[in-house]
Amino acid sequence: MAQYRVIDSRGDVVAEKEFTDSPSAYDWFKTEQAPSDELGMAMQVWEGDEWKNFDITDGGTNPGPADDA
Fold first, then answer.
1. 56 close to 26: Cβ distance less than 8 angstroms
2. Fewer C-beta neighbours within 10 Å, C or N terminus of the chain?
């Protein structure tokens, strides 16, 4: 399982959770952590020995804000 975290606009970690796949992690981010598409929110995944930015091209079922409605 991979570890994911949510970062706010100040760079503070606001949530962390493990997931078996990136689509589930992205859905968690979009529905629970940043449902209003708040600016400055970011998601990262732990890979090897560092946190890396995670974006929609890495997985997820919500391709854009319009699809979240």
1. yes
2. C
